[in-house]
Amino acid sequence: MSQSKGQLGRLSIAGAACAGLFALALALASGSPARAATWLEKNFWMSGPNYSRDLPSCDYHPALDRIITDFRSKEFRFWNSELRIVGFEDVHELATMTWAAQSIPRRFCGGTAVINDQTKHTIYYSIAEDTGMIGIDWGVTFCVVGLDRNLAYGPRCRAAQP
Asked: Pick from 110, 132, 131, 109: which is nearest to 121 by CA?
């Protein structure tokens, strides 16, 4: 029994020594100066954004359907609410930003969302290129004025507007 205790003691000392050497190696490696990227690192699979700048219009049904689905999911999951968007009125384009340098092409839209509790709320949304699932298609972000309970877009959905 005393022999196994001695072996455990030697193993723990050896483990502590290895951990100490590893920590020392990490400290020395992190202290080295940063180096610039090589030509291969700069140019390998880094062609940059290649936008087609072809965005759907504000009344594009798949975009509006995505808003309806996402609103329903958010209300049900996070707010334990049965509110749903049942329709849209007065959908129009607010602004478009398709050729601004170094920016993702977006179309900013506004309108009125008709909710299933017979109320109408102003809605602001944007359709942006390559911001959908894993960057393959366009994505939609939206904010319904009065139903942005956590103020993710600020008061009166200010951050969702152009």
From this structure: 110
pLDDT digits (tens, 9 = 90+) for 113-126: 999 999 999 999 99
Token representation of residue 149: 């309970």
Question: Which has the closest alpha carbon to 128: 52, 71, 73?
Answer: 52
CA distance 139 to 127: 6
**96 beta partners:** 107
Non-local (6+) Cβ contacts of 117 within 8 A are: 83
Asked whether 130 and 53 are in contact (CB, 8 A), the reply is no
3-state secondary structure 118-141: CCEEEEEEEEECCCCHHHCCCEEE
Q: Model confidence over 68-126: pLDDT tens digits? A: 999 999 999 999 999 999 999 999 999 987 666 668 889 999 999 999 999 999 999 99
Nearest by Cα to 88 from 67, 108, 66, 112: 112
Residues for the chain: how many in total?
162
Q: List the one residue out of 81, 98, 85, 57 whose CA is nearest residue 143.
A: 85
